[in-house]
Amino acid sequence: MTDVRAAPFIRDGAAARWLVAAIANMLNTEGGFMRLMRTMRTVLEHLGGLWALFMLAAKSRFRMNNAYWKWRRETAFGSDPARWPSRHERRKAMLAYGRWVHRMKRSMK
C-alpha cells in the first residue's frame, strides 16, 4: 500500500533541498542577499495588500455593489466602463491600492 500522507518529493525532502539550493545560489551571486531581501519584502507586501483588501471587503460584508465600492470604482477608473483599463490592469491597480493601504496602516503603528 502506498503512503498517501505526503507526496514523494516532499517525503524525500527534494522540495526543501531545491528551496535551499535556490536561496544559496541567490546568496552566492553579487548582491544576492539584498535581492533575496527585496524578494521577501515584495512577497510580504503583496500578502499584506491582499489581506488589506480582504479586510476592506469584509467590513463592507462582501457587498461589492454598495455605494462605497461604486464610488471607489468611479474614483479609480472613471464612470464610463468602456474607457476602463483592461481587467488585468484593474487587478494590478487594486492590488497596488491594497499594498498602499497595508503600508499606511503599518506606518501608523
Topology, element by element:
Elements: H1 8-11, H2 14-28, H3 32-59, H4 67-77, H5 87-108
Describe this structure in words.
This protein is an all-alpha fold and 109 residues long. The chain contains 5 helices and no strands. It has helices at 8-11, 14-28, 32-59, 67-77, 87-108. It starts with 7 loop residues before the first helix and ends with a helix. The mean pLDDT is 81.
Descriptive keywords:
single chain; mainly alpha
The whole-angstrom Rg is 20 Å
Order of helices and strands: HHHHH
Shape: elongated
Instruction: Give the biggest beta sheet.
Output: none
Low-confidence stretches: none
Q: What's the short version?
A:
With 109 residues, the protein is mainly alpha-helical. The chain has helices spanning 8-11, 14-28, 32-59, 67-77, 87-108. The longest helix is centred in the middle third of the chain and has 28 residues, at 32-59.
